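[Discussion] Sanity-checking designs against the backbone

I'm trying to build intuition for which residues belong where. Below is a structure token string of 283 positions. I'd appreciate it if someone posts a full sequence so I can compare it with mine line by line.
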């Protein structure tokens, strides 16, 4: 068995893929066991909240979620059929990054609350600068924030929460189909063409993004940094899953007139019960 059940939230089972053990070790190697565990726990909670944003928005449109799986390459909400209308897909795609932005703002508020000097804009500037630095952009912001030495451990937690969620939101909004930004892009062009053609264009744009992400990961590997390998894996996932989504869109174009939520297929990960067409919404 490659995953274990963590909990159930809003009636949706949440599973942990064992590949995340690799991520936990990387956190521990970079920051020590104690801080690594805290960072890993915050990451898991943030990705879960991000995926719940997708799942609960889809539920509002009548689409249920089978489960949520947290893995080395991010989260995946297994929706029982994806929203069909462009507006529904647009809102469902934006819901995850929106939750991440809210969590980031909460982290900024926490940092501002314990700061000895500086206001909320200073805290936000620091978080934005740290987030952009991870994308290779060096900006000077947040210099006016100061935290008492005794509060530094707590400040570190707030900064990590804010930076990690802002990075999660920004990265997922890149038009790397089938990531959130790619789905937003597809939903935006769908009113002007068929769903199959929109999916094909989104796949091509996503593959361009995947190449850029992969080259960035390769650069990080060559110049030191184990995180580059994960970046390359994410690029490969975007390349592969985008084509898979295109093939599914072509197949679905032959099923017009059917109720997609009523179509039956075997459930993933085994099981005896019958389930509707289960589709992974990756972030």
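Best answer:
Here's mine. Compare freely.
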């Amino acid at each position: 068995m490659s995953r274990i059940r963590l909990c159930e939230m809003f009636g949706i089972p949440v599973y942990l893929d064992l590949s995340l053990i690799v991520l936990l070790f990387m956190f521990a190697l970079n920051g020590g066991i104690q801080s690594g565990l805290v960072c890993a726990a915050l990451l898991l909670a943030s990705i879960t909240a991000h995926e719940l944003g997708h799942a609960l928005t889809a539920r509002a449109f009548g689409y249920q979620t089978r489960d949520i799986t947290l893995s080395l390459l991010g989260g995946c909400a297994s929706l029982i059929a994806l929203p069909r209308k462009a507006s529904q897909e647009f809102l469902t795609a934006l819901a995850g990054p929106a939750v991440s932005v809210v969590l980031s703002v909460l982290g900024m508020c926490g940092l501002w609350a314990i700061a000895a000097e500086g206001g909320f804009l200073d805290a936000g500037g620091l978080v934005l600068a740290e987030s952009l630095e991870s994308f290779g952009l060096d900006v000077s912001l947040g210099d006016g924030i100061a935290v008492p030495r005794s509060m530094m451990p707590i400040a570190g937690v707030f900064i990590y929460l804010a930076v990690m969620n802002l990075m999660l939101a920004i990265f997922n909004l890149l038009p790397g189909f089938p990531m959130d930004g790619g789905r937003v892009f597809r939903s935006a062009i769908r009113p002007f063409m068929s769903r199959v053609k929109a999916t094909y264009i989104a796949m091509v744009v996503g593959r361009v993004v995947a190449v850029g992400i992969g080259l960035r990961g390769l650069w990080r590997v060559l110049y030191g940094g184990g995180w580059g390998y994960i970046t390359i894996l994410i690029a490969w996932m975007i390349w592969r899953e985008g084509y898979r989504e295109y093939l599914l869109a072509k197949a679905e174009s032959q099923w017009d007139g059917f109720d997609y939520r009523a179509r039956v297929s075997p459930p993933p990960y085994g099981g005896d019960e019958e389930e509707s067409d289960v589709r992974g919404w990756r972030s």
